[in-house]
Amino acid sequence: MPAVFLRERSFIRIAGAEAEAFLHNLITTDLVSLGANEARPSALLTPQGKILFDFMIWRDGAGFLLETDAAQRESLLKRLTMYRLRAEVDFGTEDIQGITVAWGDAVAGGPKDSRFAKADIALTRTPGEHGYDDTEALYDELRIANGIAISGRDFALQDVFPHDVLMDLNGGLGFRKGCYVGQEVVSRMQHRGTARRRVVIVKGHAELPASGTDLTVGGKPIGTLGSTVGSTGLAIVRIDRAGEAIAEGTPIQADGVEVSVSLPAWSGLSFPERSDEASA
């Protein structure tokens, strides 16, 4: 019955007559199709299409709750406020600090995280602490095993495109909605199939080195290690170069530790064997 309290999460509430239209035209997620008991990943992008802020979003009462890293909240709130102009939208922060994530027999009444649902795991997100004392490492193990990356641990903000962290596949990108900030770049990557960096699950032949270590093939970097638990971790890599290495039997290493890499099974992705075969 695993359930973990993630202390460094905080909340922004957005309500008002035009809240849904305001957010729908600004962030990556399709809010029209967002279910009443569903939490989806989302992002506010730079005009160049990279992730400026990331968060989870779900319906709450007549408005929406945005769950984000505590260190991001004030900057995200300020940026959202800049876009309000004359829209009938109200912003506020919640006093609740942290969130309880639960899965298996411990699933509670919070919204279900669509990222885990793709991996056939029912995981709920309920604001506040709810008396569970399982360690955060259990959640990290679950995330890593299913290729679910988070900012600050697996990638730096303003450094990745949504496709890099599988937002095109986990409910975080809406491709049938209208324009939003960075949408042109995201759509071009989708339609041209030019996404060559992806999250992979890394398994070491020994304990993995520290986060931030390069994954290399023949001494040349193909990606960077993110979260790790023992000999397992996540990395964002060039899948064309990883595919070539796998096809040719060339070792992939992380600071001298030989590793294997795999794409999350739920993603439906596979490694191309040549650079010109890489696609989304």
TrEMBL record:
Gene3D superfamilies from the UniProt entry: Probable tRNA modification gtpase trme, domain 1
Pfam families attached to this UniProt entry: Beta-barrel_CAF17_C (PF25455)
Alphabetical keyword list: Transit peptide
Domain CAF17 C-terminal: 196-267
InterPro entries hit by this protein: CAF17_C, TrmE/GcvT-like, YgfZ/GCV_T_CS, YgfZ/GcvT
GO biological process: iron-sulfur cluster assembly
Transmembrane segments: none
Xref: PANTHER family: TRANSFERASE CAF17, MITOCHONDRIAL-RELATED (PTHR22602:SF0)
Name of the featured protein: Folate-binding protein
Source organism per UniProt: Rhizobium tropici
